[in-house]
From TrEMBL:
One of its GO terms (molecular function) is transmembrane transporter activity. This is APC family permease. InterPro entries: AA/rel_permease1, AA_Transporter_AGT. GO terms for cellular component: membrane. Its main location: membrane. It is a multi-pass membrane protein. Gene3D superfamilies: Amino acid/polyamine transporter I (1.20.1740.10).
């Protein structure tokens, strides 16, 4: 297929999307993704790993997410297309690195959908009914629980089936509720019981050491929660004015979520009864099935418990609905990268929804639900896979500044040459904090996706394939080296202890910087980038000529409130 034909086909499919989302709607999309099941379970899980120092884990997680998000906001404004997060590595490094990044990102996001359904059912198991208690056995969902979670998956699916306008209106309303309830929960628990002795006793502020704080960032659902920042980027094809609205939406959603999550963490730490901590032997063994609701009942806040049980459906369902939407756009992007059949690139002209991609993601969500039946196990897989997908942003943004300096950049930070390598180091550290053998298992999952890439790419002539392999070698080597470092690293991070404490952190930081340099230098002007440049030039010419739709961005401020 010629470049012209490909460009025409891609532009045609994207013309079926409706550019109707403004800053408020996109912020609601990001915030709605961040505040899902994480706020229901994250405070307890972070405390079980790090104790009261879990407060700092949320701050560190936000700093990591914000730093990495800044690299992606420039990329998102440059390429405002559906499924943006799966495209950037393809533009900068070609098919191998692009596919690995897309695979990691898709695995991380699509597995969130069954995770949200699992969270709702797990919370329901605390209801005082025999059938409800039979949904969850304390570790994972039972057969009945899986069946009920499957019904929720179908519900998320149908909410996205009809139209993007329905999604926007429904999501904004749900997000408002999802913000109000956590704020109300944190306030009510603090007023009901605020025992500062919990910070001083039972092991003190860091009962498991500072390494546990870092592990909490990677394993307790914190990375999972903040990963929602990318949802506005994946919906960029439907943004009215992506250059202005995308960066605002990403930054606003992370900052607002940070305030809410820290408040919830403080409320949880202070509300746990001292006797409960004493009998459990510390933070690691509290054993709540529905943490915040159980605490509300313990302090006589029955009205709050009922509200939390209701929100256990609303918050995860809102996030599940958003991720069902964004993952379908990601599948569309992977198809346009050349690694899925054409049917998954089809967008319904009437509704503006990529329906075949929705069906594929529903099927994969069912598979994840069947294999990983507990929220905790899904949170760990999602978090580590998410970090792997993060590393392409810092490398891609600086690579494209080198390869395509004249490409239009509605968002361009002067400090990006400093931010990008720091973001790469942060991503590498969080991956290491994920602990061996989990890091090794998720890196192995990355290899499982390679046969799909091979099916599409290895049939190409060697002269055409070689530059893609050469440009993607840094990412393959990075994953192998990080697996080895994780295995040999400190015992507090699950390793064999060959690297002394402190030195292991330094080694990982240096590795991140070295691979950042290699990644930027190995980028090349591949066909996907050349095509993207041609599309950008065509859009600029159309705007200059005053063609219909070219000035749609000018109406952003007028339409903002209506869309939201």
């Amino acid at each position: 297929m010629s470049t012209t034909q490909t460009q025409s086909a891609e532009q045609g499919s994207h013309s079926n999307y409706r550019r109707s989302l403004g800053t408020i709607a996109l912020t609601a999309t990001g915030l709605g993704s961040i505040i899902g099941s994480g706020w229901l379970f994250g405070a307890e899980r972070a405390a079980s790993i790090a104790g009261p120092a879990a407060i700092l884990a949320w701050v560190i997680g936000a700093a990591v997410a914000l730093t990495i998000a800044l690299t992606y906001t420039e990329l998102g404004s440059m390429f405002p297309k559906a499924g943006g997060m799966v495209r950037y590595g393809q533009y900068s490094h070609g098919s191998l690195a692009g596919y690995l990044a897309a695979w990691a990102n898709w695995i991380a996001i699509v597995s969130v959908i069954p995770g949200e359904a699992t969270a709702s059912v797990q919370y329901m198991s605390s209801w005082d009914f025999g059938w409800a208690k039979a949904l969850y056995d304390g570790k994972e969902l039972t057969g009945t629980g899986v069946a009920l979670a499957s019904v929720l998956l179908i519900f998320y699916f149908f909410l996205n089936w009809f139209a993007i306008s329905l999604f926007a209106k429904t999501n904004t309303a749900i997000t408002i509720f999802k913000v109000v309830v956590p704020v109300l929960t944190a306030s009510a628990l603090m007023l009901a019981h605020f025992d500062t002795a919990n910070i001083k006793e039972h092991g003190g502020f860091t009962p498991n050491g500072w390494s546990a704080v870092f592990s909490a960032v990677a394993l307790s659902g914190i990375v999972w929660a903040y990963n929602g920042f990318q949802s506005p980027l994946n919906m960029a094809g439907e943004a009215r004015n992506p250059g202005k609205s995308l960066p605002k939406a990403v930054i606003y959603s992370i900052v607002i979520a940070l305030v809410i999550y820290v408040a919830l963490q403080v409320a949880f730490l202070m509300a746990v009864p001292g006797g409960k901590l004493e009998s459990a032997g510390g933070w690691a063994h509290l054993g709540y099935n529905s943490p915040l609701a159980d605490l509300a009942i313990a302090w006589g806040l029955n009205w709050l418990a009922l509200l939390l049980y209701a929100d256990a459906f609303v918050s995860p369902s809102g996030t599940g609905m958003i991720y069902a939407a964004t993952t379908s756009r990601m599948i569309h992007g992977v198809q346009e990268n050349g690694h899925l059949p054409k049917i998954f690139g089809r967008v319904d002209k009437k509704t503006g929804v990529p329906r075949p991609a929705l069906i594929l993601n529903l099927f994969i969500a069912f598979l994840f639900l069947a294999v990983f039946r507990g929220w905790g196990s899904l949170a760990e897989i999602v978090s580590v896979a998410t970090v792997i997908s993060y590393i392409t942003g810092p490398v891609a943004v600086m690579s494209l500044r080198r390869l395509a300096p004249d490409l239009k950049r509605p968002v361009k930070l002067k400090i990006m040459p400093v931010v990008a390598p720091i973001a790469m180091v942060f991503g590498s550290l969080v991956l290491y904090w994920g602990r061996w053998p989990l890091t090794g298992k998720v890196i192995l999952i990355m290899a499982v996706g390679l046969p799909v890439w091979a099916w599409y790419e290895l049939r190409k002539p060697w002269a055409e394939l070689k530059p893609h392999l050469k440009a993607g070698a840094w990412m393959v080597a990075y994953l192998l080296v990080m697996a080895c470092v994780s295995y040999m690293g400190g015992e507090e991070f699950g390793g064999k202890g060959y690297l002394p404490a402190g030195w292991d952190i330094l080694v990982v930081a240096v590795i991140g910087l070295l691979f950042y340099v290699w990644g930027v230098r190995s980028s090349w002007r591949n066909p996907s980038l050349i095509q993207a440049e041609a599309e950008s030039l065509a859009e600029a010419e159309a705007e200059a000529a005053g063609e219909p739709g070219a000035d749609g961005a000018k109406s952003d401020a007028k339409c903002e409130a209506g869309t939201a």
